[in-house]
Amino acid sequence: MVRSGERKKEGNTKCGLMNYLLTGKGNITRDEPSTPSTNPKKTVTTFVVLTFALSSIFWYLTSQTPLVADNATLLLLYTVGSMWCPALAAIITRLYYQRNLKGFGFGLGKPVWLFVGILLPITVGLFMFGSAWITGIAPFNLQKAADVLTISFIPALLLGILFNSFLAAGEEFGWRGFLVPELARFQTFTQLALLSAAVWTIWHLPLIIFGSYHGAGSLLFSLAVFIPSVMGVGLILAWLRIISGSVWGAVLFHGFWNYFIQQFYPALTESTDAGEMMLGEFGWFVALMYVILALIFWKYKNKLPHLPAEGI
Predict the structure, then answer these.
(1) Which residues contact 312 (CB under 8 A, 6 or more apart)?
(2) Higher pLDDT, 36 or 74
(3) pTM (2 d.p.)
(4) How many angstroms separate the most distant Cα atoms in the chain?
(5) Could you tell me where the DSSP H helices lie in the chain?
């Protein structure tokens, strides 16, 4: 028979762990969601439906806008709008079920996880592009490097990182700030990592299939490399969210990855057909690296705080 004191201790432990996950703090604070008894399956369903409904507006606008220079600003605004739909859906869902905006994990957590969020995409990206430079698949562009690797480029570098992190925050506040901790209320890490990554992957598909968000190769090739890439990084970001108790590591990882993989390293690289197929978001090397990294992070899932669905 379990004594009442033991039950109380177990309950406090579960609350403490979930609060750590939701807020980035290791004890009970005012940041804890005010309605933890709300069925998380309802909140997850509401969030997903809202996200796709809001995003469909921008998907449609993007698909109806020709990809020409005159429409660059308009397409950028549509991109900003679509990437902030997950955050808006999460805010609406929180307000509806909780009447507050607590529980997104806005605490900074331990600085080490912020540095991981910054350094990992830079290091992995350098390894991928460096491999192409060394092998000659996509040579290093000395002429462009002379323009980029200068003191005068620093303001543009910082602005690029800041803007990409702003865009990433719109997604991460929804996917990792809201969805991951809600799934953690009734799923194991493996389940929540795969499900949140799958939803995130499906969310990208309309822009790939009907828009211009795809690689230089065939549409089938773009899907073949993009799906394992996003599934892999989804697991990594869920791991960072849970181990840190904060959403900011995921925001930094996403923002730095988008900037360095889509803009900075390509600016130092000569364009080749083989390089286009290998590098970037729709390159086969990215898919390979993310799958390997995801398996490594998954192997260390025992380092994470135990989730209620797994038992205390």
Answers:
(1) 10, 13, 14, 17, 306
(2) 74
(3) 0.85
(4) 75
(5) 4-23, 40-63, 72-83, 85-98, 111-135, 142-148, 154-174, 180-183, 189-210, 219-244, 248-259, 265-267, 273-278, 284-299
